[in-house]
Design goal:
Two copies of one chain form a homodimer.
Chain A lengths: L8 E5 L3 H12 L3 E6 L11 E4 L8 H5 L4 E4 L6 H10 L6 H7 L2 H10 L7 E4 L2 H11 L3 E5 L9 E4 L4 H9 L23 E5 L5 E9 L5 E3 L3 E6 L2 E7 L6 H18 L3 E10 L2 E8 L9 H4 L4 H10 L16 E8 L5 H10 L2 E4 L9 E9 L2 H15 L1
Parallel strand pairs in A: 1-2, 1-4, 2-3
Antiparallel strand pairs in A: 5-8, 6-7, 6-8, 9-10, 9-11, 9-13, 11-12, 12-15, 13-14, 15-17, 16-17
Helix pairs in contact in A: 1-10, 3-4, 11-12
């Protein structure tokens, strides 16, 4: 297995379903993987070596790193300092600078704007006074969000009229836990900056994402544009190529991801989420990792996001990102299975046995992503029939 | 993972590349696997639990069986008695009767003929006198083979004229190692029956195979007919659908595999290899397991042979066996990588990054199957260009 040189043993920080699918892709390329996770239940452990320890003991990370020839990660909240420490010893991709840019909504949107990528209006908010000023300047509706560590709709509050200002501040601005009611004194900075962002509400027609991969040599390959449907802040369905997307929209998305990747000297897979407003895209956020809206690529495209991420990190040539079915109308869909597994028998019999199940091997828990199922069809009409059948089973 | 009932933990006898690919397919279905192998280097151990022990201690097999809900195997030389013992405790598929039929070339051809499936002329040969009589009755050329345990062209001797008779007997008939030169006395039975078969040589135009899967309920699904090219007795290339195959040929193959499966009350994947002579097929042999000529199904068909074998063994609904690309001219090819791994970089860059590598993680050794690479194309012409490019890299 050591022939061909290159990076043969890849460490993955995080051993959830993304780490698991990265490890599965690496197996076929003849590469070894080792996942690092704080939980012994991490599901990547079913398919590869699992190293269990805490991220709080950086010195102990050395045992994990021993023998690795490259390191990557499955989640964007890896501490930047940790990624930097690793990258001094071993190639670590995507680069720590990408983590830094993606972990803070203000830094992220500032980067987008500096590259000419439109975003919603936004303002950093550390105090109630700043919140009021931002509301006055931007108008409502708007969304107050934590700058860091928000995911799946958590850490967000929608302001519809002025009376929501205090409520939003109460929900998210309460960083000084000793203050009664958790609301910081108006005008005075709290003990710790609230570290929020107020974003103008975007009256979007739909949500789209673009996923691309970049090699160390600077080659960029992009999968078809994806349409995403969320519910309760969690992704439910992705369809690719995004139906009825004008060429101008696809070009905007492709240009944006390419600009961000080149700017960061990026290596690996990057996802950017957009809101579509008519013929314009507004960038919402980016993820410096394989992304839930790209899970359809396992079955729908020639090279999956997992395989191409591993190829890029290992210094191997990138694979083709086209649809597997060469027909111009061929489409692919992915549905998340959340909280409860429906009977496997029904899923596997659906769509005349054409649906592809990817069960992550997790214990069911409300709101937990347990699996995804994808289906491909030669036309959007056929795809929608299959989606309807699968949705009926998912309930 | 325990929801939906059924058989959730599957034992696989053998942990080579077939066991490995079965385990990889099972992961996505949310099933657990455990492979049994005599070697600690068995490559399924990279991707699933590996139980190392010897088949010579059936009592110790109990530790392997503990907690399993079904058992299958990756090689057809599993002792029939062992499979029968297992099937008294745990569902064991394919059924032991299929092993029994496939392990002996005389039994196998007798079964084919009893079901109306044409075979080459054949005669069991235990003595030199029987060999001479068979040569006289059938004519030459013919092939003398061991009835059991032959694979990849081993245990075969081609007789072109009468003078080859003694040589062939010397090569394969020498079962009594105390006899000088190893040749049994003419007319007298040797100490142990030689257990050979003389098969009429078939002047075939090409080799084809059909692969099908059958569920416990008796549903049969068949992949497209496959064209195979061997060299030095080892499969080199498979192409599906077999180019320019008349409908009558495909129907013969499909009818044959269905007849054998129904006769054996078969569960799982079965492969039958044929010789084509003009518009007729002659069955050569069958394999009661996933088959090298079906490796293209991982990337070329909607459900791979590995996934459908696991589905059948686990009692789950069968998946669609159609090509992934719905275009009528879509084709798929698989090339074995034997003995030496070419540079991974060249393989992955070939065919504009469209080729799919499946590296088994083995140490290179002459004649050893180390990996396969497959490629799909919208037409046979495009496929042949990609095959040419890959062959140039394989050397």
């Amino acid at each position: 297995m050591s022939e061909g040189g290159g990076r043969n043993t890849i460490g993955i920080l995080g051993g959830g379903q993304l780490g698991r699918m990265l490890a599965l892709a690496a197996h076929d390329l003849g590469l070894h993987t080792r996942c690092f996770d704080e939980s012994a239940d991490a599901v990547a452990g079913h398919v590869t070596q699992l190293h269990i320890d805490s991220f709080d003991h950086p010195a102990r990370l050395d045992a994990f790193l021993d023998g690795l020839t490259a390191v990557t990660y499955e989640f964007e909240n890896v501490p930047v300092a940790l990624a930097q420490r690793i990258s001094e010893r071993i190639p670590c991709f995507p680069p720590p600078a990408a983590l830094d840019a993606a972990q803070d909504r203000v830094t992220e949107k500032t980067l987008f704007r500096s590259l000419g990528i439109p975003t919603a209006g936004f303002a950093p908010v550390d105090t109630l006074a700043q919140l009021k000023a931002a509301v006055a300047a931007q108008g409502l509706p708007a969304v107050l969000k934590t700058r860091r560590l928000g995911y799946d709709g958590k850490g967000q509050y929608v302001l519809r009229d002025e009376s929501d200002t205090a409520k939003a501040w109460g929900a998210l601005g309460a960083t000084d836990s000793s203050a009664p009611g958790g609301v910081g004194a108006e005008g005075a900075a709290p003990a710790r900056a609230a570290n929020l962002i107020l974003e103008q509400f975007v009256p979007f027609t739909r949500e789209l994402s673009i996923i691309a991969v970049r090699s160390e040599a600077g080659e960029v390959r992009t999968w078809p544009l994806i349409e995403n449907t969320h519910s309760q802040g969690i992704l439910r369905t992705s369809i690719a190529p995004a139906p009825n997307a004008p060429a101008a929209i696809t070009e905007q998305a492709t240009g944006a991801v390419r600009a961000v990747m080149n700017h960061l000297n990026y290596v690996g897979v990057l996802a950017i989420e957009f809101f579509q407003l008519g013929d314009t895209l507004v960038a919402n956020e980016m993820a410096p990792r394989v992304h839930n809206s790209g899970h359809w690529t396992i079955d729908g495209s020639i090279t999956s996001q997992f395989e191409n991420h591993i190829r890029a990190v290992a210094g191997l040539p990138l694979g083709d990102c086209s649809m597997r079915d060469a027909a111009p109308s061929a489409s692919s869909a992915m549905l998340n299975i959340i909280g409860r597994m429906p009977p496997r028998e029904r899923l596997l019999a659906a769509a005349r046995g054409r649906a592809k199940l990817h069960d992550y091997g997790k214990e069911p828990r409300p709101g937990r992503k347990l699996a995804h199922i994808s289906v491909n069809a030669p036309s959007l009409r056929d795809l929608n029939i299959a989606i309807g059948e699968l949705r009926a089973i998912l309930g």
